[in-house]
Design goal:
- The strands form five sheets. A three-stranded antiparallel sheet has the order 1-2-3, with no helix packed on it.
- Helix content is 4%, strand content 32%.
- It has 112 residues and is mostly beta strands.
- The relative contact order is 0.17.
- A hairpin with a 5-residue loop joins strand 4 and strand 5.
- The protein folds into two domains: 43 residues, N-terminal domain of TfIIb (Single Sheet), CATH 2.20.25; 66 residues, SH3 type barrels (Roll).
- Belongs to the YjdM family.
Length: 112
């Protein structure tokens, strides 16, 4: 019988096998047996709207106008962010544009 591995993100031991995936009930991460070696290497793969790989410290440009939640201001197309930081989650990029710290999805940016 195969032992069930700990969660590669939060290291929880309360994981379980669900069909073809392993599931962590604490952080809701799902992974396949073949993904286990990739996710443990801490290499985050993020691609911009054109398919270029992004890395920490890259510069990006917005490809469309984006409304800011909870504000009446808009980030304009062509605004540039320098020195981005890649993070895991529903938004892949942390950066500052026009002095405002924001989180962006990679589909709204291109590499500068």
């Amino acid at each position: 019988m195969q032992s069930i591995p700990n969660c590669p993100l939060c290291q929880s031991e309360h994981t379980y096998h669900d069909g073809s995936l392993f599931v962590c009930p604490e952080c809701a991460h799902e992974w396949d047996e073949s993904d286990q070696s990739e996710s443990s290497s801490d290499n985050l793969i993020v691609k911009d709207s054109n398919g270029n790989l992004l890395a920490d410290g890259d510069d990006i440009i917005l490809i469309k106008d984006l409304k800011l939640k909870g504000s009446s201001s808009v980030l304009k197309k062509g605004a540039k962010a320098k020195g981005i930081r890649l993070v895991e989650g529903d938004h892949e990029i942390d950066c500052k544009i026009d002095g405002i710290k924001i989180m962006l999805k990679a589909c709204f940016v291109k590499k500068a």
